[in-house]
Amino acid sequence: MPVADAEAEVLVVGGGPVGLTARALLERWGVRVVLAEKHRALSPFPRSRLVNLRSMEIYRRLGLAAGIAAAALAPEYGRVRFRDTFRDPDYATDAMVGIDAPVPESPVTGVVTSQDRLEPVLIGAAGGPVHFGAELVGLTQEADGVVALLAGGGGPSRVRARYVVAADGANSTVRDLLGIGTTGPGAMGGFTTVVFDADLGRWSDGRPAGVYFTAQGMFAPLYPEGGWAWFVPTPDGAGQADWPGLLTRALGTGDEVRVEVSRVGHWVMNAFVADRLRHGRILLAGDAAHAIPIVGGLGMNAGIADVHNLCWKLAGVLHGWAGPDLLDSYPAERHPVAHRTLRQAVANTRLLLRVQDRRREQRSTGRAPDRLELPWSEQYFAQLGLVLGPTYRSGAVLGDCGSAPGPPPGASDGSGRSEEGATRYVPTADPGRRMPHLWLAPGRSSLDAVGEWFTLLTPDPGRWADLAAAPWPIRVEALPGRHAEFCGLRPHGALLVRPDDHVGARWRDGPPTAAGFRRALAGMNGAHP
Known about the structure:
Blueprint: E1 6-13, H1 17-28, E2 33-37, E3 50-51, H2 53-61, H3 65-70, E4 79-83, E5 90-95, E6 111-112, H4 115-123, E7 130-132, E8 135-142, E9 145-151, E10 158-166, H5 173-178, E11 182-197, H6 201-204, E12 211-214, E13 217-223, E14 226-233, H7 243-251, E15 260-274, E16 278-279, E17 282-284, E18 290-291, H8 299-319, H9 329-364, H10 384-388, E19 439-441, E20 444-445, E21 454-458, H11 461-464, E22 474-478, H12 481-484, E23 494-497, E24 503-507, H13 514-524
Parallel strand pairs: 1-2, 1-10, 2-7, 4-12, 10-17, 21-22
Antiparallel strand pairs: 3-6, 4-5, 8-9, 9-10, 11-14, 11-15, 12-13, 13-14, 15-18, 16-17, 19-20, 21-23, 23-24
């Protein structure tokens, strides 16, 4: 029989990568979490296929990066290839920078892996209850919390929580119940994923890729031990389609290769951003907040960044060292990034279509060259400016010397004012930016100094030690003097790095008074000194 009630500090709705990551992050902060997922089990479909640099940095913090990489494809699969048919030679290829090999901007490398390999790692990263088959059917906000009604699953029929994180996908029940609209193109067409086994080694061995773009759809290897997926616009009569026959014709291999189809799934590609990310005690994240077209692998990773931004703020409010107003900084910081990510994904799709259109024109003349010049720079598939470069502007970011922040810096601010910075990333320790990766010691990055606390990074730890006082969790870390000038610091200055790796404030010359430091922290955290 279902349990009548359950209590939680946070209810997470949705058991995909974003919801599972939120559960793991919140548990690290000592927050009691209940997760409800309407499906009866984790998805068996590969779905999202790229865990980028930023997400792997977050998973490194959670101790999960090695396990994720172990189940992923080898780094040489961090490449895209363009072919007329799968069995033809490449007419163009490009690397996914930061996936195919390490880059100096990060202590980690992103990976090509399937979502059905990622989710089991994430679900094992926390011990809080997960209720599968529990569909949200009602939400009521009260003065001090939210009451959620669940149907099915054999778990609680009602959950009382202080806050709700809605990570329940593009067709979000939470968003619909709250009446939150969306902005963007919306549904961009129906697609089908066909999961299959076939021996395609003669056309892929020696030329590995995370995805092969062809005129007959996209083909992708799934796992180190084998398996493939075919992504294609859903044809008419899909319910009665001969998928093995369609797939064999699309591959162009005829009777040379035996194809065994194991699963077929239909889905809609959406493109929108929710009009609001916060409704009182309910906060939207992931696809519920922004549905991003798949080209470029930005959608899931943007959702992981959402909850990394959000969870420390929820923990601060719940533990009492932050005020409820801190949660206003979540939409202020992530909403502009969502809009910019959507624009970039749409631009990615258009550029891909340009490649295919140009190749089609060449073939129509009967004089298609062996190679086609791609209409982007060699760094296009990196998009490090978008992944690592956003600058947050909100009440949770102070400027130099603890002052109010200045105007947004332009292309890399995440505001969408310019898409020029999507590819190029220029590391900087300016307030609002992700703390640059700097080696503090062999094998220890500046990002490793950040965790469930605020970090004061300074060349002179002794001068700052007395300021690290309750109620805020603060640690003081030595910044090697060779990095000080790069970070905009003089010998006694310091950076205050938030738990989500973004610089919250910078004192260039030395510490403020104890009272001034407390005022700065209180203001940043929406609290009262």
